Amino acid sequence: MAISTPAYSADTHASAEDLETAALMYLKSRVAQLTGDSRGTALHATPASEQVKETLRADSAAIDVRREKLRSANGGHSRGEVTVSDMQISTSGKTATVKLTENTTLFYARTTPGSPEAEQYQLRHTLTYTLEGSQWVLSHDAPDIRVGDLAPDTYPSTAGTVPSKAVPSSKKLSSTSRPRTTSQGTVPDKSSPTYRAPGNSTLAYDYGAMTRYALQYWSNYNPNYRTYGGEGGDCTNFLSQIVKAGGWAGTGSWPGENRTLPDQWYYGHEGNWTTTYTWAAAENWYWFASPFNSGRTEPLDYIWEMGVSDVLQIDFDRNDNISHSMFVTGRDGSGQNADELYMTYHSTNTLNKRLSSIIAATPDAWFYAHRT
Q1: In the record, which residues are listed under signal peptide (predicted)?
Q2: Which residues 6+ apart lie within 8 Å of 132 measured at CB?
Q3: Which residue, of 216, 239, 283, 326, has the fewest CB within 10 Å?
């Protein structure tokens, strides 16, 4: 852990250790609130300014609601573990700023043999503390959660509110229900040499390479690619890297092709202006991958028909502009409809989050499932 070491004066009682301890205990309290662990410090009891105390009381209530929704959906979490890294501390008088990365593991209360036992997430924070007497109290928490990101359950969703008159979708929606079916079909075995990608009778992609890439780079970003921040985050940039690792070939190149066209898909190392919209924007990726253009994916009627290495996209506020992209890295059940699916994505960096948890958190969203 890299911690900066500013000069501290004796009269402020400031120390890096005190601030690190305060920050870690605060993050642990949010996790304890979600898992229902009564051994930790309650979130609303965090030493904080009066304004932040009011916010924490509201957060406590919201996390309680989320905890019960997750327990109803899949059993929720039994416990959590939190560490921090990349910590930087700076002080000015009686104010301290703590920048750090939260690394949290949330263990599932109910598990299936051979399936992930926990989800993990990584979240960057900027915490501000004020010295009151001899104690540092939290005066602001700015987690790096942006428009279009899927916030962890310790921070109840920041996705947009569904408008009262949502626009009709111009795309093929995938149902979140679990259909009753008499079919004895199974999810396709993409490791079989006879399996062929949608829309192509000859090409076989390396789906194992896709999954390995997602597991390798979900938190440790590949330095060969830029990171996309701001609204929408890095989720679709990461998804494009994943499918490219499995054999998706670029279509077109800069400067010869118009990078705004939906039938072009390529990454330009020279900068954002040399990369197609379809590479890093969720809505544009949908139109390139779907049968409307390349046909590299097949839309599915139900999200539970997905298998490992398939793709799910979400429109949080149902404005017909996709907000977020995710990749399937785990599946429970061998039938046509999964018992559970595990999603991995960037923004925020998340590994093996249960799809049932995502639905519980965003029940009014529109979902678009792709067979790759």
Answers
A1: none
A2: none
A3: 216
Rounded CA gap, 48 and 52, in Å? 6
- Rounded Cα distance, 98 and 94, in Å: 13
Q: Mean pLDDT of all residues in the chain?
A: 90
Q: What is the dihedral of CA 197, 201, 202, 206, to 10 degrees?
A: 10
Distance CA 47, CA 142 (A): 17
For 182, residues 6+ apart whose C-beta sits below 8 A from its C-beta are none
Name residue, tokens 């066209």: 261
The span from the CA of 154 to the CA of 148, in Å, is: 17
Query: For residue 54, what is the domain's CATH number?
Result: 3.10.450.100
**pLDDT, tens only, 205-249:** 999 999 999 999 999 999 999 999 766 689 999 999 999 999 999
Pairwise CA distance, residues 87 & 126, whole Å? 10
Query: β-strands 311-315, 298-299: how paired?
Result: unpaired
Structural domain contains residue 179: no
For residue 166, tell me if it sits in a domain.
Answer: no
Place of tokens 């250790």: 17
Q: How many domains does the chain have?
A: 2
| Shared-domain flag, residues 115 and 241 | no
What is the CA angle 309-173-341, rounded to 5? Answer: 35
Show which of 143, 165, 184 is a domain's final residue.
143
Distance CA 237, CA 206 (A): 19
Comparing CA positions, the residue from 214, 41, 38, 210 lying closest to residue 120 is: 214
Tokens 């990349």 sit on residue: 86
Question: Is residue 158 assigned to a domain?
Answer: no
Quote the pTM value: 0.92
Over pLDDT 90: what percentage of the chain? Answer: 75
Shared-domain flag, residues 120 and 221: no
> How far is 236 from 52, CA to CA, in rounded Å?
34
Confirm whether 332 is domain-assigned. Answer: yes
Alpha helices in the chain (DSSP H): 16-35, 50-74, 207-217, 235-245, 277-280, 282-289, 355-361
**Closest CA relative to residue 330, chosen from 187, 177, 150:** 187
- 361 and 234 belong to one structural domain: yes
Structure tokens at 191: 């490791």
